[in-house]
Design a protein that fits this description.
three-stranded antiparallel β-sheet; single chain; mainly alpha; 5 helices; 120 residues
Length: 120
């Protein structure tokens, strides 16, 4: 019993809820018909959207404030369709700054040569 409860708690939407991270929640047709979105309490059954964002799990009035997330979901779908291979920018390689005061004369001459080559 304890193992199944711990697995259920870890994988539940209630345990993964974080109001600082905007998440889109969805549910199956049968669960939506009874208002079950996997949260603390059921939501109204007359919702026309299949995607929600939850603002809080509970308020002083014992309500769960939510908003439709259909436009956000559709935007992400269109983005993935139009730009399937888009990736975040890669970090630039770190270049080590040369300290002229610690260079030997030979290293300084080599630095000057490479600088002259880059100019041309």
């Amino acid at each position: 019993m304890e193992r199944s409860f711990s697995h259920l708690l870890r994988t539940s939407r209630l345990a993964t809820f974080d109001k600082n991270i905007s998440q889109i929640y969805t549910t199956s047709g049968k669960a939506k018909a009874i208002g079950d979105w996997g949260l603390k309490r059921n939501l109204p059954t007359v919702l026309r959207t299949h995607y929600l964002t939850i603002e809080q799990l509970d308020t002083a009035e014992h309500q769960t404030p939510f908003q439709s997330a259909s436009s956000d979901f559709l935007f992400l779908q269109r983005w993935k369709e139009n730009f399937p291979r888009s990736r975040p920018p890669q970090p630039q390689p770190v270049t080590v700054k040369k300290d002229l005061s610690t260079m030997t004369d030979k290293e300084f001459e080599k630095l000057l040569e490479t600088a002259r080559e880059k100019r041309q």
